[in-house]
Specification:
The radius of gyration is 23 Å and the shape is globular. The longest helix has about 35 residues. It is mainly α and about 325 residues long. It has a two-stranded antiparallel sheet. It has a domain of about 230 residues. The chain contains 13 helices and two strands.
Length: about 325
């Protein structure tokens, strides 16, 4: 009973919904990280730059120029594709190692983003009528709910909270991205990209341009990361030049947690596992903070320790299986 009360106090409904909201949005970023790290087998650190590039560009277009939020979000994806293209150019043309290629692109993007944003922080104009995907979804869902309520004789206007609208937007984009990626990786081009990550030498022997496959994979992965940045800006209501720091670790954490939960490495479920891992990761963080055993300033330290523990799980599992087998063998010998 005490444990149930503690869990209830640490994880309220609001905290749980907020964790799901952030988990869905960050899950799209985790999909981009999964594409480069798992599918392409490319240690890409461009994500930190493409994330803030997507957030900053969409913020400037929406807030300062009044561009339709959907078009601004698509423009953010194009910006992420450009970042991935630059990293691919560094690696395939200039022959710079993958890790350093991503670092160079990430480092240079910050100057580009500062010029695009024209200032280090862009908040949504709450009283200026700034339109975002979340506000559009809130109006749409509110209108649908009011219409349905009217069918039953209720005349009250129903409003939908921004968080509920944000969850709906995040869920919609997650489904669309999962379907598109599933279709893409089932094409000949997608299979060639997967084969490049699995065995580049074999791909070259088949006459496939492995360098082109790497560039396309980087473009697709960073497009997902930039999309996540654009959605996070519209969900949080502000874009900051520092909001992308450390996101690569969060993406890897989501990938690893998803792979641990879904031990089956079947790629049909791998992408779903990544998104699910992102949601679980956010719930764990919210729960630990709610318990009061971790200060928000220790967020990154806790993440690092959690990733280290998850990575060490296979070793612990193997040792446990060995000890368990030895125990069974000893018991059988004792019975004889």
């Amino acid at each position: 009973m005490f444990i149930l009360e503690t869990i209830t106090q640490a994880m309220t409904v609001n905290t749980f919904l907020t964790a799901i909201n952030m988990g869905l949005i960050w899950g799209i970023m985790a999909l981009g990280v999964w594409i480069t790290f798992r599918v392409l087998n490319f240690a890409d650190l461009t994500a930190e730059g493409s994330f803030i590039f997507g957030a900053g560009l969409s913020a400037r277009l929406i807030v300062d120029f009044g561009v339709d939020p959907l078009l601004a979000t698509l423009a953010a994806m194009v910006a992420g594709m450009a970042a991935g293209l630059v990293t691919g150019f560094f690696h395939t043309v200039l022959k710079i190692p993958p890790l350093l290629s991503g670092i160079l692109t990430m480092f240079g993007i910050y100057s580009v983003v500062l010029r695009v944003m024209s200032r280090p922080n862009i908040p949504v104009r709450l009283f200026g009528g700034t339109t975002t995907l979340m506000s559009n979804m809130s109006s749409f869902l509110g209108g649908v709910a009011t219409t349905v309520s009217g069918w039953f004789g209720h005349e009250n206007v129903i409003t939908v909270s921004s968080r509920t609208a944000s969850i709906a937007v995040g869920f919609t984009f997650v489904i669309v991205i999962l379907v598109l990626l599933r279709l893409f990786f089932n094409t000949e081009l997608g299979c060639a990209i997967r084969a490049t990550g699995d065995n580049e030498a074999m791909v070259k022997a088949q006459g496939i341009d492995s360098n082109l496959m790497k560039v396309i994979g980087l473009v697709v992965g960073n497009a997902c990361v930039a999309l996540s940045g654009a959605l996070l800006f519209q969900a949080q209501g502000s874009a900051d030049i520092n909001m992308g720091q450390g996101i690569i670790v969060f993406g890897i954490a989501s990938v690893i947690i998803g792979e641990v939960i879904f031990s089956d490495k079947n790629r049909h479920w791998a992408m779903v596992a990544v998104v699910f891992g992102s949601i679980v990761y956010r719930i764990i963080i919210a729960f630990v903070i709610g318990l009061g055993i971790m200060h928000p300033n220790d967020f990154r330290l806790f993440t690092a320790l959690m990733i280290a523990l998850v990575l060490a799980l296979p070793m612990f599992r193997e040792k446990f299986n060995i000890q368990f087998k030895k125990m069974l063998i000893g018991k059988k010998r004792g019975d004889r």
